[in-house]
Amino acid sequence: MLRINEVKLPLDHSEEELKQALLKRLAISASDLIRFSIFKRSYDARKRAAILLIYSLDAEVKQEATVLKRLSSDRHIMLTPNIEYQYVASAPDGLTDRPVVIGTGPCGLFAGLLLAQMGFKPIILERGKAVRERTKDTWGLWRKGELNPESNVQYGEGGAGTFSDGKLYSQIKDPKHLGHKVLQEFVKAGAPDEIMYVSKPHIGTFRLVSMVESMRANIIELGGEVRFSSKVEQLILNNGQVEGVELANGEKIPSKHVVLAIGHSARDTFYKLFEQGVYMEAKPFSLGFRVEHPQTMIDSARFGPSAGHPILGAADYKLVHHASNGRSVYSFCMCPGGTVVAAASEPGRVVTNGMSQYSRNERNANAAIVVGITPEIDFPGHPLAGIELQRKWESKAFEVGGSTYQAPAQKLGDFLAGKPSTEFGVVVPSYTPGVHLTDLSDCLPEYAITAIREAMPAFDKQIKGFGMADALFTGVETRTSSPVRIKRDNDSLQSINTKGLFPAGEGAGYAGGILSAGVDGIKIAEAVALSILHELKVA
Ligand code: FAD
């Protein structure tokens, strides 16, 4: 099979034109082409009046070696690499020490799935509820302003990304193509096939719900166990070696291999692990607001006359500005045609995030506009100081929003002018249970407010209309990534001071997003499997 990269065609080309472009690139006749398929499809929208689709194609041709030799100077044509996943281990019969996985976010789910596929029959523990019940609790906050601290946007089956845009791309280095395995498993669980080839795949919320159920069923079928409402209270430790976990109800589950995939919001668990002596350190994260614009405005700015084209879908954006106070302001987790969601997990606090459905056809585009912060400058002194900083601004947002789980909001024009908003403009907020119009300048540290004010006109130069006075800010966005890193050894992937503990995913500081958390889950499953086999060998 040959891989042909950089095949470029106009947006509205036919299937026949794609085939003809391939034949031309390979300089072969139609009778020499056995079949071809699309490996990846992306677009180049730099020239809005002439948007191009860019393909990587896989083609089976007659006399492949001859064709490849003839085209050897073309660096965009090569043999198709084999990126199919290869299991690193298989569990021996009669294994008694079952690995434990804490958390059913993408990291825990993939760690559990891979361990189950290799025959290790993991026990997976989740503090929140199964996804259907969890959905009801999450709607409880969104519709009635009632927060369930154990079952919400952050906690429960599927983890933090279940009620999300389901964006499935990442900039991580992935030399073993583990991301491909993640996407394949998602397709098996019900994701649309296109996620395998479009450059920026997304799934949307509804499908994610049934996908995580399907993955759970698969794990159980393979001999694994998945338990909900099972919060791990603490580790059972003996001389720096994990010997199991203790649940909040006092039940003890023995295991010498514990995957810690708890996400970035399990603050109580971070504190408990810190008390137990597990090594962790503060890490940088970001603070900011969500901004909403009309999606049609973003589409026109990005795609010009092709706005609304079905292949392009709702437009996204990615913006960065280096402010004169030394801070970087950037857009994060952009959700085209989506809604801003209440993402708090602690009572008396307000946190924003974004989600969308697969169709991405809601009226507003939203994204976090955040400012990078670092422990050395902004929260020095204690490994968990970042958590307290997040709590401070989330509590402030709750208070400024009226202490009812409404979020404080302000129009962009008023934010720049430094005056409170009193009425909405053309952008109607999507956040439920509702927003409270106010002045956001007290809702973040002064350096962040200054940097965001400076960034808006700069962003307007990149996306015409971005600085519109009626765009709406809703606050606060505090959970862009974990404020903590639970350090692990590069080879064994075990905690650097707690043997048998495998810190993983976003909460431990080793992933940021659904795809990278899934990839880290696979890496961790491999490390656990190899560690179990090694210990059996030396015993
Ligand atoms: P999590 O998904 O946070 O999962 C951790 C799990 O551990 C949770 O289910 C939690 O209940 C459980 N847990 C915690 N403590 C304990 C304990 N003590 N005992 C038992 N269980 C415990 N990323 C994207 O790539 N694309 C997106 O479109 C996207 N949109 C998002 C939208 C929203 C609203 C949110 C909140 C996040 C979004 N993200 C998105 C981020 C993404 O969801 C996370 O990066 C990802 O879920 C991290 O995976 P994880 O498995 O490491 O942790």
From TrEMBL:
It comes from the Bacteria. Residues 284-480 form the FAD-dependent protein C-terminal domain. Pfam families: FAD-depend_C. InterPro entries: FAD-binding_protein (IPR028348), FAD-depend_C (IPR049516), FAD/NAD-bd_sf (IPR036188). PANTHER family: FAD/NAD(P)-BINDING OXIDOREDUCTASE (PTHR42842), FAD_NAD(P)-BINDING OXIDOREDUCTASE FAMILY PROTEIN (PTHR42842:SF3). This is FAD-dependent protein C-terminal domain-containing protein. It comes from Iodobacter fluviatilis. The lineage of its organism: Bacteria, Pseudomonadati, Pseudomonadota, Betaproteobacteria, Neisseriales.
